[in-house]
Structures are given as C-alpha cells and as structure tokens.
Amino acid sequence: MTGTRGMLHIGDVRIEHPFVLAALSGFSDRAMRRVARQHGASYTINEVVLDSSVVFESDWQKKLLFVEPDEHPVGAQLMGSDPDAFGAAARLLADAGYDVIDINFGCPVPKAMKRCRGGFLLSDPAAALEIVRRTVDAVAHDKPVTLKMRRGVDDSRESEHRFFTILDGAFAAGVSAVTVHGRTVEQRYRGLADWDFIGRVKRHVGNAPVFGSGDLLTARDCLDMMSRTGVDGVTIARGALGNPWIFEQCLALAGGRASLPPPSLEEQRRTIEFHFDESLKYYDASAVGKIICKLMVKYSKVHPRPKRVRDAFSAVTSAKAFRALLDQWYQSGA
C-alpha cells in the first residue's frame, strides 16, 4: 500500500488498513460504525461512554452490550474516574463482544474536567495509571487495551512531563497502542493540532503502535499525517461526519490511485437512508427528529447545494417527511 504500512495489529486484533473511525461523542454509535465500515473503514470505535453508565444504566446497556456479527473489529471507548467502575465496565464490554477497550484521557469538555474525567487525568499520572492497570487487569487476558490522549493539559513543560509519564507507564502496564491528538486539553478544538508532537511520540515509543488524530478533514490530510509523523495509523473524527466516503478516498490515495470523484446524489441518498434506517433500529420513535437533524446537518455539506438542503431538513420531524425531502433533493438535477 503506497504511503502506508498497510495491515497492522493492536495486540492480537488484526486491522486491515490504518484508516480508523474515531470515537465521536454523540455520533459513532452502531449506525455510524456500520456506515463507515460499508465505505471502507476496517476498524471503528464506539462513541465514548461513562464507566458508570455501562455498569449501572440499563438504557446504555441495551444500546452498548451487543455487537453485530459483521462489525468486527470494533473498539469500545470508556471514560471515568473510578478505577473499580472502569474495570467492571471494561469487562462487560469485552464480554459483549468488543474487540478492543479504549481508555479516554483526552476529552476536553468542562463537564468531564470538573468531574476528574477524560483530559483531566493527564494532570494526575498516579490516578490515570491506576485506571490503566485496573482496565488491563480486567480484560487483557483476552482483549487488548488502548489509550486515547491529548498532548497534555496545556503547553507547559510540567504538562508534557506528565504526558510522557502516563504514556510510558501505560505501555509498561500492558497497553497495546495509543492514539495521540495533537491539541492540548486547554485548546479544546481551537487552533491547529501539533503534528510534530505526534511524530515525537512515535519516535519515543519505537515499534509500539501509535495512531494520530487532529485536523484530519480530508484523505490527503490523513496520508500527509502518516508521512510526516511516521504514525502507524490515523483515527478520523470530524472528517468522517457526514462524509464516510473519506475512508474510500484514503484507500484510493494510499493505493496510488487518482482521487475519487465526489459521491453522486444517488450514492449520497443510499448512504443517508442506510444510516437513518440503521439508527431507527436502535432508538425509539421519539428520537426521529433528533436523528434527522443530526444526520442532515452533517451530510448536507457534501450536497452541491448544502445550505438549501440543510435548511430544508432542519424542521423535519417525521420519517415520512424526511423521505419526501430525500425525493426532492437527492436525485439527478436537484
């Protein structure tokens, strides 16, 4: 595969190619995972969930504790602050069929930070590594554990030192791979991701698998990050929202082929309908309006008339009206 290392492994889990659907809070549920896989993603990661939700909340259990036979390999990403609950949740997800357990030390949202979760743990190596050890102890005899990190809480030297303390400690504890997002927690989603830092991490860990994350909005971005940093793979987040074709485009570029043309309106419609129908399998009828709004805001950006399409769908709350507008906007000449 030109420009990539091709197949790689996370522990004993074989990943066919290095272009991965990232864990996207509120988006990479079972429906989006299946859409991404249909368009070429060989490994997908479920949206981040709280350890306590997995262990104690029955609604989450119904949505999470089932993996379709045709969606392997698939990862489950966990976030929390209680080592006991983390280990218990990891075991439940492993038993449910997830192939990899991914620990989130990167979420920058204020709610997570205030509750000592996600990116907050980059400021506390002792607490972070205790969660890592409990998770590895719970599942590592049969499922690999991976870690998602930002490059630190802020740009200080102390923050960078804590990052590498956690990174080295995690691999020593048995973590199989790490994903590094090139922004700090303090940056949240502002500014540019520091790809040079990601490259430093890859050189630091040597042969251990490293995935890069941040500013991967096009297939060209994904190939450029791999070339510039030496990472083994990339996890695609915002670039995959409403654009699952990015995985096919990555594969085409990596294979030395010309860039693929934008998807036709007919192809866009098939993908949107499949995504919508898959969503309806896992959510009740009251969620139809929310599903439509979430889908069309993202998918409309690929349409030749994105603002008109987004506005047309913004007030739709029924499946019938949704399909009628698909008839209007997603056919030749629309």
Descriptive tags:
334 residues, alpha/beta, TIM Barrel, nine-stranded parallel beta sheet, two-stranded antiparallel ribbon, 14 helices, 11 strands, globular
Number of domains: 2
The radius of gyration is: 20 Å
CATH architecture of the largest domain: Alpha-Beta Barrel
Residue-averaged pLDDT, rounded? 92
CATH homologous superfamily title of the largest domain = Aldolase class I
Query: What is the count of β-strands?
Result: 11
Kindly estimate the percentage of residues that lie in beta strands according to DSSP.
Answer: 5-15%
CATH names the topology of the largest domain as TIM Barrel
Number of separate helices: 14
Distance between the termini: 37 Å
Topology:
Elements: E1 8-10, E2 13-15, E3 19-21, H1 30-38, E4 44-45, E5 49-50, H2 51-56, H3 58-64, E6 74-79, H4 83-96, E7 100-105, H5 110-114, H6 125-139, E8 145-150, H7 157-173, E9 177-181, H8 195-205, E10 210-213, H9 219-229, E11 233-236, H10 245-254, H11 265-282, H12 288-299, H13 306-313, H14 319-329
Parallel strand pairs: 3-11, 4-6, 5-6, 6-7, 7-8, 8-9, 9-10, 10-11
Antiparallel strand pairs: 1-2
Helix pairs in contact: 1-11, 4-6, 6-7, 9-10, 11-12, 12-13
Structure in words:
Helix 7 links the parallel strand 8 and strand 9. The chain has two domains: 247 residues, Alpha-Beta Barrel (TIM Barrel); 65 residues. It starts with 7 loop residues before the first strand and ends in a 5-residue tail after the last helix. The protein has 334 residues and is of the alpha/beta class. It has 14 helices and eleven strands. Helix 6 runs parallel beside helix 7 and helix 9 crosses helix 10. Strands 3, 4, 5, 6, 7, 8, 9, 10 and 11 form a nine-stranded parallel beta sheet that branches. It has a two-stranded antiparallel sheet with strand order 1-2.
